[in-house]
Each structure stands twice: as structure tokens, then as C-alpha cells.
């Protein structure tokens, strides 16, 4: 038995009640990002954004999944410029020209909704906006490959092909993941791969797709805080994330923006 088979046997297949639970959780996570849109401006601190998110989630009767998660203590990850992922909210203000990923995971009635988007801070340079656009396109190439009969490797292949055709690299050190009643579970969703490899996709599988693309080399390192992942060459990095469920005919995206604010530039 190879590792793909092992992985496949661990993947939970959810029923209609699971889809209903994920729909609610995914919606709240997306609403948190919608709520933040007008606040992401030059001068705001990522800690202030974190506080807004915390208050919003609690007011909705839910909880942020990341507080107390492996020693993490915030509601958001805020990853600015060359930070790939898991940036910790801080009192440093965002500045004009930054790009920032904001990642939120909420627990609603025991179900996890996990999503992230890029935001422009003021007017980022063209190369930064291009990276953001390409990363968004890669997420959707992956989502389009997420259907029964395809394999997990088809998702990674679609993402990698589009990224590399446009001279960007795909981070390998961090993956998407199964989720549902737990935050991180099987399968590991690698954002690069070969067609037809990995577990077969079946209706009822829930997982995230969350490609991270770099303008330069794919290599990552973790800072001394134990969380912040940055590009080794300090090149810009971008990421988008959706939580999805495989259906009979394709997939359902649980974390679409109810306000239609799925990608920047957002109306100001
Ligand atoms: N939301 C992230 C993901 O997409 C995980 C964040 S874990 C944290 O999987 F502890 F860093 F918040
Ligand atoms: Co995730
Ligand atoms: Co996330």
C-alpha cells in the first residue's frame, strides 16, 4: 500500500448535515473578511484588524479556531509582503503599497470555516498586483479541478502549471488540508503535483485549497517567533484560500464572499 492509499482511507466522507454545517461556518469566515475590507488601509495595525475579527466572530456566537491552537493566540494570520503565511498580528501599521493576506478560521456549531484573501494597502506596485491576481487565478484553477473522478494531484497540477507558466513559484512547505469537525485532517492538499496521482476525489470530502505563490524562489523559512513563514529570498508572496466540499458533479465552495468581495481591488 502506498502513502496515497493510506491517506485515502483516512479521509472522512461527510453527509448532507456536514454540508449544512460547513455552509454556515464558511459563510461566517467569509463575512469576517468582508467586514475587514474598509479597515485595511495605510496606518491600520494588524492587531487592530485582529480585534475587529475577534469581536465579529464572538458577536456571531462562534469562536476563532486559531486561539489556543498549538499556542497561537490570535483570531487572524496577517501575512504582509514577503511573509508567506502565519504572520502574527502586531502593532506595526500597514503602509501604502503593501499587500497583505488575511486568513481566518471560525468554528460554528463544531464545523470549521477557513478562508483567506489578499488585500491591497493603498496602491501596491504592478508586480505585486500581478502576483495577487495570478494567485487568485491559481486558486480557481485548483477549484475547477476539484471534482469526483479526479485525483488530488490534478488540483496541484492545475495550480503549479498556471503559476510556473507565469514565472512564479509554488510554496511546497505548506499545504491545504482536510477540515470539518477538526481544523486540520487528511488529506494534505499539496499545491503542486502530477495528474492522476494521490487520492481519488469522492463526494463528501471536505478540504481547503490555499496556494501560496512567490515572485522568486519557493523556499521558506520560519522566523524566531516559531510561526511567521517568510520567503528565503525575501521576494513577495501571495495566498488565497477557500474551504470546499466535493459534490456529485463538482464541488461546493463554502467560503465565497456574500458581498462579492472575493478579490482585490475592493471598492473603497
Ligand atoms: N488558517 C490557517 C490555515 O489555512 C492555519 C492557521 S494556524 C495558526 O490552515 F495557528 F497559525 F493560526
Ligand atoms: Co487552511
Ligand atoms: Co486558513
Quick tags:
268 residues; binds cobalt (II) ion; three-stranded antiparallel sheet; four-stranded antiparallel sheet; alpha+beta; single chain; binds 2-amino-4-trifluoromethylsulfanyl-butyric acid; globular
Q: Can you describe what's shown?
A:
28% of the residues lie in helices and 24% in strands. The chain has helices at residues 3-10, 16-36, 46-59, 126-144, 152-165, and strands at 63-64, 76-80, 83-85, 99-108, 111-120, 169-170, 176-178, 185-189, 206-209, 212-214, 220-222, 229-231, 237-239, 242-246, 251-253. The strands form five sheets. Strands 1, 2, 4 and 5 form a four-stranded antiparallel β-sheet that branches. A three-stranded antiparallel β-sheet has the order 3-12-11, with no helix packed on it. The chain has a three-stranded antiparallel β-sheet with strand order 6-10-13, covered by helices on one side. β14 (242-246) and β15 (251-253) form a beta hairpin. The radius of gyration is 17 Å and the shape is globular. Bound molecules: 2-amino-4-trifluoromethylsulfanyl-butyric acid and cobalt (II) ion (2 copies). One cobalt (II) ion is lined by residues 103, 105, 114, 116, 241.
Structure at a glance:
This protein has 268 residues and is of the alpha+beta class.
- How does the overall form come out from the CA principal axes? globular
Please provide the count of β strands. 15
- Class by alpha and beta content: alpha+beta
Query: What does the largest sheet look like?
Result: 4 strands, antiparallel
Bound molecules: 2-amino-4-trifluoromethylsulfanyl-butyric acid, cobalt (II) ion
How much is the radius of gyration in Å?
Answer: 17 Å
Order of helices and strands: HHHEEEEEHHEEEEEEEEEE
For the residues shown, what is the average pLDDT? 97
Q: What percent of the residues sit in helical stretches (DSSP H or I)?
A: 25-40%
Strand content: 15-25%
Which residue ranges are poorly predicted, with pLDDT under 50 across at least 5 consecutive positions? none
Distance between the termini: 54 Å
**Tally of contiguous helical segments:** 5
Amino acid at each position: 500500500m502506498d502513502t496515497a492509499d493510506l491517506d485515502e482511507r483516512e479521509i472522512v466522507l461527510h453527509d448532507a448535515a456536514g454540508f449544512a454545517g460547513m455552509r454556515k461556518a464558511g459563510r461566517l469566515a467569509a463575512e469576517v473578511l468582508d467586514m475587514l475590507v474598509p479597515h485595511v488601509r495605510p496606518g491600520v495595525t494588524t492587531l487592530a484588524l485582529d480585534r475587529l475579527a475577534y469581536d465579529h466572530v464572538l458577536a456571531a456566537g462562534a469562536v476563532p479556531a486559531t486561539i489556543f491552537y498549538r499556542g497561537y493566540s490570535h483570531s487572524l494570520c496577517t501575512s504582509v509582503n514577503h511573509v508567506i503565511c502565519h504572520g502574527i498580528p502586531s502593532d506595526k501599521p500597514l503602509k501604502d503599497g503593501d499587500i497583505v493576506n488575511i486568513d481566518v478560521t471560525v468554528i460554528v456549531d463544531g464545523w470549521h470555516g477557513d478562508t483567506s484573501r489578499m488585500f491591497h494597502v493603498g496602491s501596491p506596485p504592478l508586480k505585486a498586483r500581478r502576483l495577487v491576481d495570478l494567485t487568485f487565478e491559481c486558486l480557481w484553477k485548483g477549484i475547477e479541478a476539484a471534482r469526483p473522478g479526479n485525483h488530488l494531484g490534478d488540483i496541484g497540477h492545475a495550480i503549479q502549471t498556471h503559476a510556473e507558466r507565469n514565472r512564479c513559484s509554488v510554496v511546497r512547505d505548506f499545504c491545504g488540508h482536510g477540515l470539518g469537525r477538526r481544523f486540520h485532517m487528511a488529506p494534505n492538499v499539496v499545491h503542486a503535483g502530477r495528474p492522476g496521482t494521490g487520492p481519488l476525489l469522492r463526494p463528501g470530502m471536505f478540504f481547503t485549497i490555499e496556494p501560496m505563490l512567490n515572485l522568486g524562489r519557493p523556499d521558506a523559512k520560519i522566523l524566531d517567533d516559531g510561526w511567521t513563514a517568510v520567503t528565503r529570498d525575501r521576494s513577495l508572496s501571495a495566498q488565497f484560500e477557500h474551504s470546499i466540499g466535493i459534490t456529485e458533479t463538482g464541488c461546493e465552495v463554502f467560503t465565497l464572499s456574500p458581498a462579492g468581495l472575493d478579490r482585490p481591488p475592493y471598492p473603497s
